[in-house]
Specification:
With about 90 residues, this protein is mainly α. Helices cover about 80% and strands about 0% of the residues. The protein contains three helices and no strands. Helix 1 packs antiparallel against helix 2, helix 1 packs parallel to helix 3 and helix 2 runs antiparallel to helix 3. The longest helix has 25 residues. The protein is elongated.
Length: about 90
């Protein structure tokens, strides 16, 4: 982990790209409803909020392990959200 700032950028970029993918899907599939896609956007925003709170935590005993866990969680949740987009 290079820095806390880089982790926050990664969180923002990954989840921002996922939200952008949902918007692209909505534009390409105007004949389908947006209920499922809106749920994915809401989940991405909730994930963003959760991970940023974890990244801003202070007084950590093992900061390296904490940030590695956040990075791993970002990867797992990002993949899960992409799978949901693919199922739309």
């Amino acid at each position: 982990m290079a820095s806390k700032r880089d982790l926050k950028k990664d969180i923002n970029n990954v989840l921002g790209d996922i939200i952008e993918e949902v918007y692209v899907w909505e534009m390409e599939n105007t004949d389908k409803g947006t209920k499922g896609s809106e749920a994915i956007i809401d989940e991405a925003i909730a994930t963003f909020d959760d991970l940023i709170v974890k990244a801003n935590a202070r007084n950590l005993e093992n900061a390296k392990a904490h940030f590695k866990a956040i990075s791993t969680e970002l990867e797992e949740k990002g993949k899960a959200l992409l799978e949901k987009i693919n199922k739309l």
